[in-house]
Amino acid sequence: MTNSSNDDRVGRRGGAARTSPYTAYAAMALEGRGWRQMFPALPTEKGARHGLAEIFRGHAVRNPAWGDRYLQVADDIQSEAADQVILGGGVYRIVRIEQTVVMTEYGPESPKPTDREFPAELDDRRRRAEG
């Protein structure tokens, strides 16, 4: 006897099922009418906080008039005193990202030619290092 709900969950009834979520972390910025992920997801909240704090520290160097405020925000993010900050008209937030494995009737789905890496030009950590 089979368990039909289990069959559906693992994709045996035609089509893929998404299973095995795990949590990763990143930072996002509110831009216009939507949110933009600032760098690729990282395995730890601490890593995401460090990434966003480093971006703000880079802003402090490039914008001396706001330098002290950027440094304070970087410290608040890194020390976990804040998950979201509003600064200079921008809204920035540490976020949780649920990642999944796509399961088919043949097992976990392999990479596809259409899969894309996080675009380097959108990685704000890289911009800070280059700027």
TrEMBL record:
Q: What is this protein called?
A: Uncharacterized protein
Question: Per the record, where are the segments of Basic and acidic residues compositional bias?
Answer: 112-131
Q: Which Pfam families match?
A: DUF5954
Task: Tell me which InterPro entries the record gives.
Answer: DUF5954
List every stretch annotated Disordered.
105-131
